[in-house]
Design a protein that fits this description.
Elements: E1 3-4, E2 18-21, E3 24-27, H1 30-43, H2 50-62, H3 68-73
Parallel strand pairs: 1-2
Antiparallel strand pairs: 2-3
Length: about 80
């Protein structure tokens, strides 16, 4: 789940749960992604199940390593 926007071409690889464009990305929050997916599913007379949410959370966790801006913004413990 990502949202890429802007008039320039995005980079070749955009990690899952990215929000932004040529000028940079931030992490697309899971609560926002769930809300968007829920609205999309309802338009199709479907329901976003608990299993769907678990799958999306797993994708979010597994792709964190590709969201380099998270590493740059994390604080040292």
């Amino acid at each position: 789940s990502s949202n890429v926007f802007g008039s320039d071409f995005p980079r070749n690889f955009v990690p899952s749960f990215s929000w932004g464009g040529h000028s940079g990305y931030v992490t697309y929050r899971t609560d926002k992604a769930f809300a968007t997916a829920d609205r999309m599913m309802k338009r199709r007379d479907l329901e976003l199940s608990a299993e769907d949410r678990v799958i999306l959370l797993r994708v979010f966790e597994d792709t964190a390593k590709f969201r380099s801006w998270e590493k740059a913004n994390s604080s040292d413990d």
